[in-house]
Fold each of these.
Amino acid sequence: MANVPAAPKKMDAISTFFYRYRRVIKFLKLFFLIAGPGIIVMVADNDAGGITTYAATGAKFGYGFIGFLIILGPIAYVVQEMTVRLGAITKRGHAEAIFDAFGSFWGWFSLGDLLLTDLLTTVTEFIGMTAAASIFGVPPLITVPVVIVFIMALNLSGRYWTWEKIVLFLCIFNLVCVPAAFLVHPDVAQIFKTGLIPQGGFNGTIFFFIMANIGTTIAPWMLFFQQSSVVDKNLGEKDIKMERLDTAVGAFFTIIVAVFCVIVTGTLLKGVNIQDAAQASRLLIPINKWVGYLMAISLFDAGLLGAIAISLASSWAWGEVFGWPHSLNNKVKQAPWFYLVRLLILLVAGTIVLLPGAPLVLITLFVQVIAVTLLPAALVFLVLLLNSDEVSGKYKNTVSQNIILILIVGGIIVMSSLYGISTVFPHLFK
Amino acid sequence: MVNMFKAVYGKIHEINLKYQHPRIHQSRTVKVLLLILRIYLLLSVLLLIYKFATSIKGG
């Protein structure tokens, strides 16, 4: 009986709290409802190739690239924000938008190039996953089929919402670089002191790493993925503001992972030439086994997220153009071609990794070059679409937006082209 | 098998017809940009073929 009067008081406190912070709570509820495409695309951007690049960058230059990586966050945001607007206004995926706006020649070119890039990039995701799993004693023959079954099983619910929440949960594991960085006890003062400008002047190697980091942060499949994702989630004009925030949060996480990954290898492996992230994990295990294992988990998760997002970008694009049902809200029976394209990409990529003597190094090299071929085209289309009254209407770019965009897109095109050339002629910039 | 190919060809033809006319106004700027893009892509493809050929030769 003594507790009876306490209940209303407690209720009062809860009610007061909800009343006082009702706007914040409403905002957060809305954010968690809409958030997804931006965070997923940005975190999946830290794929196996991305983690490898960050690990190699830290090992080569210590903390020297941290400042540059931080700048890449807003740049990635500016590019991806355009796809949010386009998707929300036109209700069309990027592939369909290109067909519609520029005709079938450019449409087929984009679709074919996207499929080829996605297929080869998925191969590199499987390379990363099998290498990471082998650190835990799991052979590639088990890793590849299990991963394919897992990715396809994510769609069994036939609900976009379920798929998105599971993938968002997987995104959390991308952040394991953060505790790993705390475990290595880096010199924080040194990070701030040397983190802003690469040490030792500017040379061809630094240039190569700058281009590699740009290449891993802004990729063609991201444009296709986020726009299709916005459409599949049925986000409209009213959701643009919140989806922009979603993209900004995603860009923040991308950079957090990149920076902390650089801190790990920059602290423990400085001066070592790293070829891949799995090699970094193996080198880290004797120094600090938990850090090594966390790096391996990060690599596996990065490859998994990359494979999930990249295979989906292609199947969405083909579904849009061919007019097949192409939503994650469709069950397999309702959208067989959509899921078949996805399964085929995963099967072909997984099989290539399992083939004895497969030219995996050559494939990794070609991924970079082919991605570079598509990126300028995709970016030019994006800018033109967002300057068209017919397509973007009142959401078309303003003059100031265009100035910023032209600088960013121009810079990316020049740098990515040079990166492609340097991949083909490695000694040109050294 | 033949029917499948016919169906695919028919679908591609249908897509080509549907997107025959670009929706974006073909202003001079758009035309110049697309021309530059074509040249850029042609050079990129030549670069790829060269690299592929030399990689195959090099084993």
Amino acid sequence: MIRKLLTGAGAIGTALMTSTAAFAQEATQAAAPVVDKGDTAWMMTSTVLVLLMILPGLALFYGGLTRTKNMLATMTQIGAAACLAMVIWVAYGYGLAFGPEGNAYIAWGKWFLAGVTPESLADTFSDGFKLPEYVFISFQMTFAAITVALVLGSVVERMKFAAVMVFAAVWLTIVYFPIAHMVWAVGGLFFEMGALDFAGGTVVHINAGVSALVAAVILGKRIGYGKDVMAPHSLTMTMIGTGMLWVGWFGFNAGSALEANGSAALAMINTFVATAAAGLVWMVAEKLAGHKASALGFCSGIIAGLVAVTPAAGNSGPLGAILLGAVSALVCFAAVTILKPKLGYDDSLDAFGIHGVGGIVGALGTAVVYAPAFGGPGDGSTGIGAQLVTQAAAVGATIVWATIGTVIAMYVAKALTGLRVSEEVEREGLDLGEHGERAYNY
Amino acid sequence: MKFIIAIIKPFKLDEVREALGALGVAGMTVTEVKGFGRQKGQTEIYRGAEYSTNMLPKVKVEVATSDDLAPQVVETIQQAASTDAIGDGKIFVLDLVSATRIRTGETGDNAL
């Protein structure tokens, strides 16, 4: 990558301050870059929508699925891990993912956002159109924050709060930032391979899902898993969280267009219909399996659809998105109801079963729905088969990287904190044991 | 005096209360309880994880009554709480040794 010097806060039109940010297309014309206020307003809105996904969306979604005694611990872990991610992002995360210098695996520079000013600009997908760099930094920051929070779904109800914080810091550093760089930064490994990942199916969902599985296996099962009743304590809250996640996901997916334009609009319609199809199909799958169509099934289908459409949001037509959502719901349903009990691992809230598996379905499926034959925006120059190979390579590399990095992060957390709460605390609940509070006093 | 304990279906509580009120029963104590008898429990399924609950929610009604009224109380509860289905519950009758009204210190039937 060519290092671009920041020239300070010159008059607009003279200072060509570009970040080396993601999705960049080298600006070739000499004309002054345009900072469109509509784009900027949309991206600020999208950024806050992604925050809504974390707090309170994911916190309620996950919290409702845990037992009464672990409600506060689950929500606090999500909030605290997200906050830690934000602070680390400004300190060195942005530098490692999108810094001015780097190679195919990692970048560096701009520590503590050195040199970034309100006049600094980041690229969009359109030549000559830029965003304030602070907006781009904030938008990407929320992605780092939600990804680390997603991982925690597999380890709740038994991991120490201190261990969660150590794990989050190490995991972000050695897993998230490199993979974000590889997928989204110019010169990144997957970026240059031509892997399609519109809003982060690989970086966020496969990465979080696989890491969650590895972390759950290292941590071990909850006491009483498979014997005691571990039914969700409030599916009402899970349903509320699901709704907030869906609403926030428009910032996540349509915001990933980086502009308020037709590409964002395509991502928006797809985020509606893929999700709707998945919510319905999950309930149909339950019925076919001899059960009742359930509220949790509905919520699970919604999330499976959202996850699958993430890489395809701007890379698919609405018909393709509906197919993708439907397939994702079926595959994720099989993963959590058949695969998980067979393999016997305790992924408490199915972070792997839905985010990992749904993410893989989405990443591979994007190769199919991108093709014009399925109404996708692709020009057909790359065949479905060839694109599928590229997608599979990116998925495979992400799985390997996430697995190795998570093993390291978990053992660092174990060495420093002991990783798991005592049996007594686990039985009494992490709310009292780790935080000294009860979620409900009545 | 008799002490009558009736385990009934929760939604039958209002009917039992009205019927006993019409009979002249002056008071009762009601508790939400769980238990099982011949009625089968329910199965809950969360993402494929099945939990069968064999304890079902019931309401326990406790009534203290004079010896004269006791047979009518039992009959009234039986009729009001019946749906002719398994799980309607049971009625137990115990001898009551004494009763005291705390406010006045009255004892026996006068305290009921």
Amino acid sequence: MDLKAYKGILVIGEQRQGNIQNGTFELLGKAKELAAKLDCNVSVLLIGNGLNEQHGKILAKHGADNIFMTNDHSLENYSTEPYTKTITKFINENKPEIVMISATTIGRDLAPRLSARLKTGLTADCTSLDIEENTQNLLMTRPAFGGNILATIVCPNHRPQMSTVRPGVFQKQEFDVRKPLKINCVRADITKEDLNIEILDTVYEKTEKKNIEEANILVSAGRGIGSKENITKLETLAKELGGLVSGSRAVVDAGWIDQPSQVGQTGKTVRPDVYFACGISGAIQHIAGMEESDLIIAINKNPGAPIFDNADLGIVADVNQLIPALVEELQKETHK
Amino acid sequence: MKIIVCIKQVPDTTEVRIDQKTGTLIREGVPSIINPDDKSGIEAALVLKERYGAHITLLSMGPDQAELALIEGLAMGADRAILLSDRAFAGSDTWATSIALAYAIKKIDYDVIICGRQAIDGDTAQVGPQIAEHLSLPQVSYVTSIEKEENSLKVKKVFEDFSQNIRIKMPCMITVLKEINQPRYMTVGRIFDAYKENQVERWNIQNIDMDPSLTGLKASPTQVKKIQTKGAKTAGKVFEVDAREGARLIVEKLKEKFVI
């Protein structure tokens, strides 16, 4: 394989119902950083139908130098084979050295299929990406063993070097776009045989539910809060601060909060401005999902709880007494 | 219906601890289990068998000790178990693992391959879709329910904020989430039967007609460059105070950081 024939970074964009997902913007920001080290361009390939200039503009603003889009009705919604075929063809023609994909349910279905077809390596759920100085290889770091270790993976002899990154791991950036917008249309050659599954229906969950990944403040419950009823205390605090309630795996398993609000290795990765760990002991699997939070405040009865090793401020106290007291103190502040 | 369930034996990562002095993983005494998503894959196959009639083959690639995971699967009710084990596979990444499993699967008659979504030691969720690609099969991942139709399956796939009912023709590959079911326990009679000698078939690389240069460390596109244990973030201050004082300390901190 002629490694030098591969140049540039490709971000596979993700849209749902025509809305470009945050993970795509976050990848573009990171790609831009890596591109500066490699002295190359960042391209984005957005697959869908009915995509337009607005999509192009927002991709450019978040760091895409070259914009590629499909407009094909058979690609309107994600389906494994049509997307794999379209992207494989694009990669074979354009030969990017790095391909980045969001580690969503879509990306984690698509990326392994692509890597197997392209006969190249793939590193899932990376939490850090960098360029190795002398080799210019992509250094892909990811947690393994339930977040107990961090492994740095390389793909030295195959191209492209592929990685997926969970939404929320990198931060999106905005750039001044000076050059005129140019959208390159990519033709898809989807045949009947490629449509090898039949989507019977699509059911959207109620959108009222707020996404904990987008909250600035999270009040997170652990087993230490004792009962489902005590969740309301946390909700009062969250409301007071304009945040949301999330929880550890233990409280999700206990049915005290819903799975979409679970933080941790098997839940979501969050990085709010403030993370309240309320009665959370701090298993490594949980820490892996919240350690990037700007300010971590831990409240736990047990002074030996590992959560205190990861907190900026720790209070050894009964969480069910402390939270109402905190709400009162906050209300005093606002009435001052 | 003929079903293959791919399973992996994994260390129970919830039991893994870090040696605070050396910063290394303490593997001693960590129990090995059937990967939870894979165990739900076995259960899903058993439910299909009860409902529609099926023959279930379990396939695992791993060292000798992975035989225990297969025995457990047999004791749950699977019909056949194959352990794919050979030094040639050592050091395989997901690409090299999936191609070896695909070679083995080519030797088995099947309508459906069921894999767990991901293993708790690696969390990559790659091997299932990669097997499907090597075998040119259609796939649906993240499945939480399965019904059989004539020549196809009707499955429910979940995404972050929506779900789809999908019809997929057999032969096909699906990956299941552990939420799909609650795996049953082994039965005493079956445990006894499963432990009888030679219940688990042993296959090596010759049995699957595979060129050794296609698998193992050397055929793996990805390589591990460095492993480190995560150092804890510099711990902040911890106060043992009453609730009122604790609340005041938190308010102070929130002010300091301009949150309020």
